Amino acid sequence: TLNDKGHIFTHARVATLRENADGLGLIEDAAIVVEQGRIAYVGPQAEMPALYADYPATNCENRLITPGLIDCHTHLIHAGNRAHEFELRLEGASYEEVAKAGGGIVSSVKALRAASENDLIRESLPRLDALIAEGVTTIEVKSGYGLDTENEIKSLKAARRLAQERNVAIRTTFLGAHALPPEMNGDKSAYIDVIINEMLPAIAADGLADAVDGFCEGIAFLPDEIARVFDAAKAHDLPVKLHADQLSNLHGAKLAASYNALSADHVEYTDSEGAQAMAKAGTVAVLLPGAYYFIRETQKPPVEAFRQAGTKMALATDNNPGTSPLTSLLLTMNMGATLFRLTVDECIAGVTREAARALGILPETGTIEVGKHADLAIWDVQRPAELVYRIGFNPLWKRVFRGN
Ligand SMILES: O=C(O)CC[C@@H]1NC(=O)NC1=O
Ligand SMILES: [Fe+3]
To answer: In this prediction, what percent of the chain has a pLDDT beyond 70?
Structure first.
């Protein structure tokens, strides 16, 4: 580990991503001083206070430093995979035929319920390691395949344990309102009762979730059902976020904004009224190009409307076995640019500052500013655009997590 007195990273191009700076907040020939795992100085090398001069130093030789990457929307904890239904679909099977063959979210629920907490950790670590290898320092992990109290708690405990298994920060999100479990025999209202009266109180009491999410879609839960879950989340002082307007416009984004949600995610079908409501509420639009690509969607999210309204935009992998088996945040940035036409600066902000904002942790991380965690990614590139331009190439030179 780096010297615990302090350490300096010298002669770097630093993309601070600080608020209200032009573009990426780039500082040329810069130094970063780290003390007790936090940023003590960031600025031109020539202006670094002399008291830091004798700290052990890493000469970055003009390499680019960004904040550590943040994947702000994943279902990383899951069991098994859905490669078989991928194959069936390629052979022409419809969603209904796949469902009849036991595919869909229900197959992931069965696998999760059969897995122990240790099984979930063992199966999820390779996915976690793939993200960490690309300089990711914070990851959000949802539940949502347990769909009963015992298995939702098992999922969230496994998610929390990932932070013991690796040097990474984990934020957890309760997504009991993801799908209707088979044993509820189609009774959505009764299942929402279980979420509100049984799951949420137990999860909130044990501090297992940092936020509450829901899937607002015709095939999942309708706005009034989501509102019941959100009212209960608020009663437990838990912030909310929402899978919104992914396949149709149920005005999920507007509903999320009305609860001052941290984020509304997917948002392919969100309209300009929803974008304005999000901007006003400070609700971040989390774009998930991996799911858009994998299920071959045609409706792109309203990026220009978000820009006009001033809605902040983040990018995330949405890693999940059904619609986005993606474990590369670098590829996610390329998809954000190539498929959704985000700029390079929007892509890099989308996996750092705006991803931190979508998780409510921007005061702690997501930019390179004095007092924040020293979570850094140092890249063997000259132009920031190289991080977004390449497909399937990882130019990470060094990852720094909490100063180490
Ligand atoms: O198919 C799965 O396993 C999850 C699908 C995933 N969940 C959600 O709310 N939207 C999605 O695309
Ligand atoms: Fe998702």
So the answer is: 99
**From the CA of 328, how far away is ligand 2's center (Å)?**
15
215 lines ligand 1 (CB under 6 A): yes
Model confidence band, residue 288 (pLDDT cutoffs 50, 70, 90): very high
Whole-angstrom distance, CA of residue 172 vs CA of residue 206: 12
Determine the atom of ligand 1 nearest the C-alpha atom of 295: 12
Helix axis angle, 105-114 to 149-165, nearest 10°: 70
Which single residue is written with the structure tokens 């137990």?
Answer: 202
> How many other C-beta atoms are found inside a 10 Å radius of the C-beta of residue 224?
10
Q: Which helix (DSSP H) or strand (DSSP E) does residue 244 occupy?
A: strand 241-244
| Alpha carbon of 137 to ligand 1 centroid (Å) | 24
Judge if the beta carbon of residue 322 lies within 6 A of ligand 1: yes
C-alpha angle 318-367-125 in degrees, rounded to nearest 5: 40
Average pLDDT along the chain:
97
Amino acid (one-letter) located at 286: V
Q: Does 3 have pLDDT greater than 60?
A: no
User: So what's the pLDDT on residue 95?
Assistant: 77
- Does this model's pTM top 0.90? My answer is yes
Q: What is the tens place of the pLDDT at every residue in 111-141?
A: 999 999 999 999 999 999 999 999 999 999 9
Task: Report CA(377)–ligand 2 centroid distance (Å).
Answer: 25
Contact 243 CB / ligand 1 (< 6 Å): yes
For ligand 1, atom 11, which residue shows the shortest CA distance? 323
DSSP 142-182: E--S--SHHHHHHHHHHHHHHHHHSS-EEEEEEEEETS--G
Q: What is the ipTM metric for this complex?
A: 0.98
Cβ of 74 closer than 6 Å to ligand 1, yes or no, is no
Cβ of 66 below 6 Å from ligand 1: no
Distance from the Cα of residue 122 to its chain's centroid: 21
Torsion sign (Cα): 228, 232, 237, 238: negative
